[in-house]
Amino acid sequence: MTAFPSEQPLQLALLTISNRHSEATDDSGAMLIQALQQQGHQLYQRHFVPEDRYQIRASVSQLIADTSCQVILLCGGTGFHAKNCTIDAIAPLFDREVPGFGELFRALSFQKIGSAALQSGAIAGIANQTLIFAIPGSLDAAQLAADQLIWPQLLAHTKPCNFTSLLRRAGACGATQAETGTAR
Predict the structure, then answer these.
(1) How far is CA 41 from CA 35, 48, 102, 159, in A?
(2) For the whole prediction, is pTM greater than 0.90?
(3) How does pLDDT run along the chain (184 residues), one tens digit per residue?
(4) Could you state, in order of their start, the residue ranges of all structural domains in the chain?
(5) Do β-strands 130-135 and 123-127 pair in parallel, antiparallel, or remain unpaired?
(6) In this structure, how many other beta carbons lie within 10 angstroms of the beta carbon of residue 161?
(7) What are phi and psi of 34, to 5 degrees?
């Protein structure tokens, strides 16, 4: 991964969705934290949330309402297994879904794992000017999503477009981008 320090550090929350992982065993979470810091962003909060749609939804809802959190990254619980409920838990919270994020992730995954990519889930959306990504918990899949899709879109100089102009300025309670001067 090539690090391009962000022009303006973003405040990211990382939620590991798992019934079995802890900080000591969460390799994907550790990789994401290291990568986001290399990108020049800051880890705002880190939580381990069980695979329960209501606990996931409650945790994400709290962060959406938190004016200091700009990006929420959920890692795990996105697959096709019956217990995986991350996508179903957060999709109703979106003001707007990022169309194509999951499809593009699966297309990139297909290049690496073939037809098994059909069972790999990913989704992104925005709620209350907070960008939300849900990606698989496997190390390879998390790194693929972060390096190829997420980090480039969190850089203001990524052309022809990026997500930074859609995000609220950290701490700007209820203010619009125009009011805070962050609209581009």
Answers:
(1) 9, 20, 23, 19
(2) no
(3) 444 445 689 999 999 999 888 888 899 999 999 999 999 999 999 999 999 999 999 999 999 999 999 999 999 989 888 889 999 999 999 999 999 999 999 999 999 999 999 888 999 999 999 999 999 999 999 999 999 999 999 988 888 888 888 887 655 544 333 333 333 2
(4) 11-180
(5) antiparallel
(6) 10
(7) -60, -45
CATH class given for the domain over 11-180: alpha beta
CA distance 33 to 129: 22
Taking alpha carbons only, the member of 168, 178, 98 closest to residue 129 is: 168
Q: Residues 41, 26: contact at Cβ < 8 Å?
A: no
Omega before residue 160 within 30° of 0, cis: yes
- CA nearest neighbour of 53 among 101, 102, 91, 21: 91
